[in-house]
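Appendix B. Chain record.
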Amino acid sequence: MEKQKASSTLVVVLLLIAVFSHIFVFPPLIRYCKADPGDVSESWDNSTTLNVTVLQLQPRVNWYDFQFYNGTAWVSRLNQQIDVNNSLQYRFIVNISSDQGWDDIEYIYIEAWHDNGSEATTYNHSGNQGGNRNLRLVYDNTSNVSGIYNMTWPTGGEVTIGSMTDIVAIDPDGSPGNTECHNLTFSFIPNYQFRYAPDPANAAAGHNDLWSWNFNITVLDFQGYYSYHNPIVGETVDEFGVYSYTEIVSAGWPTITGNPGTTAVADSNISVTTRSNGNYSFSVNVDTLQHTTNPGATMANTTVWARGGDLDSLQNFTGSWPIYFYANYTNNEYNEALPNGTSLLTDDIEYRCSIPLTQLPGDYEATIRYYMITET
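Structure tokens predicted for this chain:
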């Protein structure tokens, strides 16, 4: 037994000697080496960038237009005249960006006004300039729902408010992670007496022409910053014109009954409804009265008298010369257009006839010729 233990111990000793002798006598199977690149004097790395994001505090009006719907498409009428026939639709379209997010936008104001011959005029916030000289469209984004479109002026029917569209867009110059951009349209229908203004002659943006409609687009955000379109000008301004519109809508039929040798008064005063979107002159003339069954019997129009409108005293017709109820365009005189309403109502027109003593009895008729002209 003792010999067997001695033999086992000897074997273990020999194995340990073999292991350590292999480590020190023979090289290791894995060797660690360090490269030697030679002389390296410089190095470039262009794989990273410096990123700077500039966020503008003010909202931006990127572009805008004033357009007309021709039945199939919207076409620009910027710096051109528009019609006012109570049915044609027009709209302002504006592209707006906000680096502070769209919720930061509170109000968008589109204010338009007839400049009345002076570029120094601005939108009349008091409204006393008249309904057919002022237009104010408002986009209210202060509620938690989508923006609300309304019209705060005029209120007398000179303009009919239309619809609004709000479409999310992309500002190519904005910051993708911060900038929000929207296309908005605000439509309306100008009615008959929307104030006349000649065609602007200068197609450049801004207020350039007298006797035009100027407009201004303003965007107001939560912090009180206002928008700009041109950083040099500092605001978004432009203009458009309006064609003249003149119409005699209706006129009453005066009826006079009297005896020869008397001046008979019509049964009642009559009314005439007219429309004009500018200063105007309104007159009337009467043809020779003809007997309805005996053409040989007549009464000259000099036997007929009339008054009404601004004409307080009775005047008789004198051949081809008319009677003027408002102004006299032949003397370059025009009555100031009414500031409110969609029509003019003259309801105090009175007719009289001085029937000659020897006049043949019977019914007589004569054509009444009303004439209205709008100053252009």
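Further analysis of this model is presented in Appendix C.
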